[in-house]
Design a protein that fits this description.
Elements lengths: L1 E5 L1 H7 L3 E4 L7 H9 L3 H7 L6 E4 L2 E3 L10 E5 L6
Parallel strand pairs: 1-5
Antiparallel strand pairs: 1-2, 3-4, 3-5
Helix pairs in contact: 2-3
């Protein structure tokens, strides 16, 4: 299983904070984003590349080519800006 966690505007757009996903056909973060993008319009906006998002796996920032493993926690969040 993959524990999916969504934060800030991503959580609001998808109306999802956390869920468990089966670890099937997933090799990389990019694979996970592709699967999520097929869920519908707001999911497509977030995960098809239209929106800039950051990814953390097990609380470490990673790139889209990061290899996932069963039991990982994957978090998606918008970039943080400051002033």
């Amino acid at each position: 299983m993959i524990r999916l966690r969504l934060f800030a505007s991503i959580k609001e757009l998808t109306n999802t904070e956390e869920e468990l996903l089966p670890f099937e056909n997933l090799k990389t973060v990019k694979d996970l984003k592709k699967i999520l993008s097929f869920r519908g319009s707001s999911w497509g906006v977030v995960f098809s590349g239209e929106m800039v998002i950051k990814t953390a796996v097990n609380k470490e920032l990673v790139s889209d080519d990061f290899n996932l493993k069963d039991g990982d926690e994957v978090a998606f969040f918008p970039p943080v800006t400051g002033g």
